[in-house]
Amino acid sequence: MEEGIVKFFDSRDNKRFGFIIDENGKEIFFHFNDGENIIAGKEDAVFSEGKLRTEPKKGDAIVFIRTPGSKGPKASPWGFAQDYDRATMEIDSRSAPDVFRVMKQTTVCGNAPGKPEVLWEGSDIRLLCAKYPRTSDHRMDDLYPTFSCGDFSHQVWFEIETESGWMDTKDPRPVETRRRPKRW
Length: 184
Fold this sequence. Notes:
Layout: E1 2-10, E2 17-22, E3 27-31, E4 36-40, E5 45-51, E6 61-69, E7 72-80, H1 81-93, E8 100-108, E9 117-122, H2 125-131, E10 146-148, E11 152-162, E12 165-169
Parallel strand pairs: 3-7
Antiparallel strand pairs: 1-2, 1-6, 2-3, 4-5, 6-7, 8-9, 8-11, 10-11, 11-12
């Protein structure tokens, strides 16, 4: 997005257009109908395609995307810089998503424990659940904490990333719940 200042805006019903002075001091055309609200998206401030109710005035700070028009470049879409600032402040105030990883270590009886291996790492728990669904029956859960038999054992644990490194945490996957069928 580019920034600029409204130089002129004709607010008459049959006009509703104006000019913005961009950061290089050049004029760029804009029309009120191309104005959109700016909201906080997932990672960036984005135009929401919601039409504006407030008309710009001379001196208003504007953010816009430069697009080709019939008579040269125009600002479309455009929105108020204060809405852009508000949206970016909201994004900045969000906490970063937690990053988890699933670790596994196998030990063959009589030998030293094997090197821990990362089975999964990420912040989208839905992806973890898709790959390793959690069930109430631990025999069906590939990430059940400990499994052993006479010849070997393997341990699985969950870690969360912190400012000081990785730290053990509880399983972040929700437990699968199955509804009982209704009896008539």
